[in-house]
Write a structure and sequence with these properties.
Blueprint (H helix, E strand, L loop, with lengths): L5 E3 H8 L5 H7 L9 H13 L3 E3 L5 E3 L1 H10 L5 E8 L2 E8 L7 E6 L4 E7 L5 H10 L1
Antiparallel strand pairs: 1-7, 2-3, 4-5, 5-6, 6-7
Helix pairs in contact: 1-3
């Protein structure tokens, strides 16, 4: 599997608050809009800091790890979403695929345990199906 940062639903709620595209992406990922509350967002912020996915910068602003910032950009840039369930030798899981967005990117967002997701950019030179098999089955 590629080296990807897993993001929890609380981290996503913190990171994506105020982004006009987030409600549609949240629905595509099967996350509940009832999670959009301050307590969940505060937990998400704390989790990002503890897991070294963000740090406090010199000006007092939260600075995200580059890969996390890129994931946030890609998640809400647009495109059509499709959800799926899969089963394999590693068990069953669920995820979502986003078709090509304005930047030309395509995404696989795969569910992991405890409400975490991995955001995987789909390489333009390969088939989505082949990349999905590699990500989920090794």
């Amino acid at each position: 599997m590629d080296n990807v940062d897993l993001l929890t639903f609380a981290e996503l709620e913190y990171l994506m608050q105020g982004d006009e595209g987030w409600p549609n992406v949240r629905a595509a990922l099967g996350l509940s809009p009832s999670a959009a509350m301050d307590d969940v967002r505060f937990a998400g912020q704390a989790s990002l800091l503890v897991r070294d996915l963000a740090r406090w910068g010199a000006t007092g602003a939260l600075e995200l790890k580059d890969t996390v910032a890129k994931d946030c950009e890609l998640l809400t840039e647009g495109g059509n979403w499709a959800s799926f369930v899969y089963s394999g030798h590693t068990g069953t899981g669920g995820g979502s695929f986003r078709s090509t967005g304005p930047s030309g990117s395509r995404l696989l967002v795969l569910g992991h345990s405890l409400g975490a997701v991995g955001v995987h950019a789909v390489a333009p030179e390969g088939s989505v199906a082949d990349q999905f098999v590699t990500l989920t089955m090794g």
